[in-house]
Design brief:
With 398 residues, the chain is α/β, with parallel strands linked by helices. The protein has 9 helices and 16 strands. β3, α1 and β4 form a beta-alpha-beta unit.
Length: 398
């Protein structure tokens, strides 16, 4: 006798990450008239951006051009495009999702031309879009990550005398974000399908080298954030490792997260309790590198005592009271002294001070006691002033 078990499956809709591409913003052609290199007039022949903007009054002035993946043969418009754009707008960032031209119909350099044009478009229209012309990044997933890393390593300052005002501005992104990117077209871990769609069956070796972007990093390459997974067999993590290593060699600021588990093409990974945190790490990186707020940073220094005695060993954190987009100040405390250099400094304004005691000072004080004392007093507040020495001496009581 056969027995059947009834399996009930509950579906949970994760809000904020689902979207219908057709219902999103209308596409804006990057070239309203004749498209350079186009051989047709249909949508795939006419590169465009769909502009997702934060709610009124929520924008912080940053913007990012998003290049969805798809092996240069298709475009993953939803989970690597509009869904990611919706997350950015929730963080005050304007997002332009790029539909670029694809192989085998369109080969290099046309996809790169489309990405460069999108960056120029955002910069040339910064005032209209309500964004800062010097806080425009590019992001890409998989083959879109190759396109984004190509835009980050192949750029120019624009043509000052161009008839088209968009062509007069730089196409250099101010930062680059790469999700499980294709980077190399020559290494053993190269993604052959992307190379074939982009360059054809028998590409020139010099061109392969030129578009293996780990070989094209210079000191002028913009700061980068990368994430990947160790389980990715489609585009191995060695791609991100190679790009990160190249950035390190020329001292370009960069941050890399490789999660142990997760397949290729996860997008926001809303169902994975670990992998979905990549976007929170990205927010931290954007904030700490001052891409989410305007202003010149200030150095901060001072002395921390506890009951009149120098705090032997601890940590000091300065958290903005007026904006979550301002970088957080952090310093180690040693024998009561702390210092935050200008290049890692904070923006002017009021900050809540949090001190963590990591040393044995009174044989009674513990880490929790120090935090509780500050909390009960409502926190210690300091004001960072532009151009000032910003020296803060604080005596804490238990």
């Amino acid at each position: 006798m056969l027995r059947y078990a009834l399996l009930t499956v509950s579906f949970v809709v994760v809000t904020g990450v689902t979207s219908v591409w057709a219902a999103g913003p209308e596409p804006i052609p990057l070239w309203p008239e004749k498209v350079p290199g186009a051989t047709g007039e249909d949508e795939p022949d006419r590169p465009s951006v769909r502009i997702h903007q934060p709610a009124k009054g929520k924008a912080n002035g940053a913007a990012v051009v998003i290049c969805p993946g798809g092996g240069y043969g298709i475009i993953a418009m939803d989970h690597e495009g509009s869904q990611v754009a919706n997350w950015f707008t929730s963080q005050g960032v304007t997002a332009l999702v790029l539909r670029y031209r694809l192989g085998p119909k369109y080969r290099h350099p046309l996809p790169l031309n489309d990405a460069q044009r999108a960056i120029r478009y955002a910069r040339a229209n910064a005032e209209k879009l309500g964004i800062s012309a010097h806080r425009i990044g590019v992001m890409g997933f998989s083959a879109g990550g190759h396109l984004a890393s190509t835009a980050a390593t192949h750029f120019d300052a624009g043509q000052a005398d161009a008839a088209d005002p968009v062509d007069r501005v730089s196409c250099r992104p101010d930062f680059v974000i790469l999700g499980y990117p294709v980077i190399s077209l020559t290494a053993e871990f190269a993604h052959k399908g992307s190379a074939r769609n982009l360059l054809g069956e028998t590409p020139d070796q010099q061109l392969l080298d030129n578009l293996s972007n780990e070989k094209q990093v210079t000191k002028d390459t913009p700061p980068a954030f990368l994430f990947h997974t160790g389980d990715d067999t489609g585009v191995p993590a060695e791609n991100s490792l190679a790009f990160f290593s190249a950035l390190r060699k020329v001292k370009v600021p960069a941050e890399l997260h490789i999660y142990q588990q997760g397949p290729h093409g996860v997008g926001l990974a809303p169902g994975d309790p670990a992998l979905h945190t990549w976007k929170e790490r990205l927010f931290d990186w954007l904030r700490q590198n001052r891409f989410l707020a305007e202003g010149e940073t200030e150095a901060v220094q001072g002395k921390i005592t506890l009951n009149g005695q120098p705090l032997k060993w601890g940590q000091l954190t300065l958290i903005s009271r007026d904006s979550k987009y301002k970088p957080v100040g952090f310093a180690m405390i040693h024998n009561g002294n702390y210092s935050i250099a200008k290049d890692h400094g904070i923006l002017p304004g009021e900050y809540t001070v949090v001190v963590v005691n990591q040393g044995d000072i009174t044989h009674q004080q513990t880490l929790d006691d120090v935090q509780q004392v500050l909390h009960e007093k409502g926190g210690v507040v300091v004001k960072v002033v532009p151009g000032d020495k910003n020296i803060f001496a604080l005596d804490l009581k238990n």
